[in-house]
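tool=predict chain=A
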Amino acid sequence: MSTPKTLFDKVWDAHVVRQIEGGPDVLFIDRHFIHEVTSPVAFLGLEGRHASVLFSERTFATADHNTPTINQHLPVADPQSASQLDALERNAHKYDISHWGLGHQKNGIVHVVGPENGITLPGMTIVCGDSHTSTHGAFGAIAFGIGTSEVEMVLATQCIMQPKPKKMRITVNGQPGKGVLSKDIILYVIAQISASGATGYFVEYAGQVFENMSMEGRMTVCNMSIEMGARGGMIAPDATTLSYLKGRDLSPKGEQWDKLVPYWQTLKTDEGATFDVDLTFDAADIEPQITYGTNPGLGTGVTQHIPMADTIKDGAASYKKSLQYMGFAENESMLGKPVDFVFLGSCTNGRIEDFRAFASIVKGRQKASHVTAWLVPGSHVVEKQIQDEGILDILTQAGFELRQPGCSACLAMNEDKIPAGKYAVSTSNRNFEGRQGPGARTLLASPLVAAAAAVTGEVSDPRQFI
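tool=predict ok
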């Protein structure tokens, strides 16, 4: 009888081209996503070696990181951004790679457009020169970010050398409480195990909470896996996965679909398979979350107080430095903290479900007059859904404006930068010093918590508006 395998082992082992004794595995890559920031140097490397792209049909290019989110029909003003966008278009054309540039109807954030077009499928290996590639693990794929030299390696060989990570399973059972979204679940988990708690592991998420989650919710969870140090995260495909994928533009059709479904249904952890670490949490313990520090592990329930330094795993000195940067103090209440900016968007929370949640709170209310809000859909598909569902009308009546798709204030590589010293409640994935602009102070939260902050002008409990 065969040894029981985890979901991760099944997908990884099926893609090993060669095992190097005492070294990394050579892994075949099914899908390679590229964007304008990490690909130009990789293509220069190819040219320098007179190499070509081995399987151009397995590579997909989109512009997202430093694209403007207003007036996308005009030439891009920033010279470096314009140069990178030109390079992406030129390289995609030269090597016959599918390219969704600025203005293309399918353009958007790489980790939003991949799934929504059916490019991301269960059982695949997926890489991109972007750390939040882990998003695609929501479909039962092994997906992880790579560096520029590795982008070049995948373009040239469709393979990558990787040491096999250890395995961790995180199980969350029970029924999430009122106002608790997938973002709260993952922020809570990261706060429990710290921002380095899963370093060296690939995480499988299991239990009722993830089984009952929408695909958008699962993508949010897997997206944030690397914020606890993990190489990636994945969730076993099920009926929810198949329902999401069926009929999408580039999803398999007809006979090909019928052939793949039985295989996809085998992609789950066998009974008796073991993990290096197994953690379990109860959904009943989780309330809407917010971060107060400068890494995603420094978070707490929105109604709680900032913890004392001696309770923090990362050490008191760095913790106090973090609070100093944020202008916060130990034991202060998070409720009532002033908010200057609100950002709804990014590959973490830029999907239609996130805009529906945000709109559910702001409907019939008004944006606080001193708050600047940037609402940025993850793609043109999401932008159209926002319009078609009447969400844009709700947002407009409440005093909000919708911007155009892109990564935007998540990493502030375009004009969307939070000014120094200002507080931003953000639905993105990182709250590092300067991540959203030099001196910016970021509080990570769900779309509901962001919406509550946008209408009150301070950190508020969204449950009072539900």
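The two ends are 52 Å apart (CA to CA). The chain is about 30% helix and 15% strand.
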